[in-house]
Write a structure and sequence with these properties.
two-stranded antiparallel sheet, 2 domains, 4% strand, Arc Repressor Mutant, subunit A
Length: 161
């Protein structure tokens, strides 16, 4: 990509600023209020640090820079984390797991909570839950199969309607 394509004049002096940087800087401008409310509501199912981050940004209106200063980390790291959390929380798979996890066996529920809600990898979930990687993979595959079946059945009912 040409660098000139992503630069836009923003200041009265004609200085060039990176358009991607300003778009990433304030995620709230790209997300409407209803989505922000949905993100905050679904954040209740996340681990505490992730929930606190989303609530600080979307509910309390703190800037990425303020959050980064409080956490003593880089702003781009906080911004990237916010974006990833927002995408995960707004995904259909997240909603599916939240709606179905109460009917699953405790071990499957733990795997779903660690991986789908907590964002851990299979290996991290296996270590955290003191389970074998094989059993975590089997639970993950079963959850994904249930999700795919539901998505397929929803698609078929839409086509028939």
């Amino acid at each position: 990509m040409n660098r000139r394509e992503t630069l836009t004049p923003r200041s009265p002096s004609g200085a060039w600023k990176d358009a991607r940087e300003s778009a990433v800087r304030d995620l709230r401008r790209r997300i409407d209020r209803s989505q922000a409310d949905r993100i905050v509501a679904r954040a209740a199912f996340l681990p505490h640090p992730d929930r606190a981050l989303l609530e600080a940004y979307f509910l309390h209106g703190r800037t990425v820079k303020d959050i980064a200063l409080a956490q003593e980390t880089e702003t781009r790291r906080v911004s990237r984390r916010l974006r990833r959390l927002a995408v995960r929380v707004l995904s259909d798979r997240f909603t599916f797991v939240v709606q179905r996890m109460n009917v699953w066996a405790p071990s499957r529920r733990k795997v779903a909570t660690a991986m789908m809600l907590g964002g851990q990898s299979m290996r991290e979930a296996a270590q955290t839950l003191h389970m074998t990687l094989y059993s975590v993979r089997r639970h993950h595959d079963a959850i994904c199969a249930q999700y795919e079946m539901e998505c397929g059945s929803r698609a078929n009912t839409r086509k028939g309607a």
